[in-house]
From TrEMBL:
Protein's name in the database: Alginate lyase domain-containing protein
SUPFAM superfamilies the record matches: Chondroitin AC/alginate lyase
Residues spanning the signal sequence: 1-24
InterPro entries, sorted: Alginate_lyase_dom, Chondroitin_lyas
Amino acid sequence: MTGFITRHLFLSLLAILLVTPALAGTNLPDTIVLSPTILYQTKRQILQRDPAIRPAYENFINEAKQALDASIESVTLKKKAGPSNDRHDYWSLSPDWWPNPAIKNGLPYVQHPGEANPEASSDIYDRSRLSRMARQATTLALAWYFTGDELYASKSTALIMAWCSDSSTRVNPNMLYAHSRLGVAEGHHTGIIETRDLIRVVDAALILEPSHAWSKSTSRKIKKWFSAYVQWLMHSEFGRREAESRDEHGTWFDAQVAVYALYAEDIDLARTIIRTAERRRIVRQIMPDGSMPYALKQPRSRNATFSTLEAYAILSSVGERLGLDLWNWADPVGPSIRQALDFAAPYLNPKKKWPHGTTGVFNPYRYVPLFRRAALVYKDNRYLDYLNELPKAHGARDNSILFY
């Protein structure tokens, strides 16, 4: 039944569109994290057939075409509901918790710090669905902006509506059952970090606003969902505990609230989050030498360090939209985002040994956008030099060159 509903939703949206692609996005897109200026510049380069970005653009369009054929994702597609018995509740497994080998049914699960249980990324749970939906919705929205092809806008809109607004498929605006520890706890506050993927969905929604697939009614419904989620984040016990975290979880909590509040038009809350981040995050988390002790204590400390920097970049992007410069803010005794970036930057290359504790598997390509953005913000090509240390074959087709 759910599959029929989501297919019907997509076809209904498609039926109202002008099927002939038109030149989309004649104005700057009103994005929050992605730079409107860079996106507009890239669009001009595409129209001019600039060979410098051609490999990356062709790779990107191939990904967009694949996303057109992908299934629409929803939390209601899991085979069984989680602890609440409501399929609309998001449910995920805490990634480093494993079945207990000493007990026949594996319960209660036990923690293996830093070791990812592949069960957590299976479609038993919703984590991978959320990740796929966010990636595909964003790719398709950007493909519409670059090409004007309403097929991309229609599919992206359907994905976002299925996740956030369609009454038969939408997710409930809470994370009570994220990071479940089977036999131990139905959920954990650390699971809130998983909805950072929705930050990309916000930018996708903003990009789509001028398309034929999107409407004022759609905007109201999606903003209503994000407003409800912000209220849960700010007033729930899980939200309070996550906000108190001094590692990447706390920084990502702030980044999410800032983006979602700004999108839902709660400007005062977004501004408060950015202003308090100076003392609450930068001063408390970053040392004068740029190290972040709470990140360095994590089982996968290199990942935690770069992930925290990524969250700082998103907070700083929200600050830009509000006229608040978090990128360059510095405490009188020294701590700043740039110092933390400079501390970690030499170790983006995974071939370089990380001298600050355990590291685990590290994927540097996730953080390529961070370094591209830093090069622009700080007007310092040294950050691009770090990218040049990565395999060049990947760099030529790296999509982030289109967006940052």
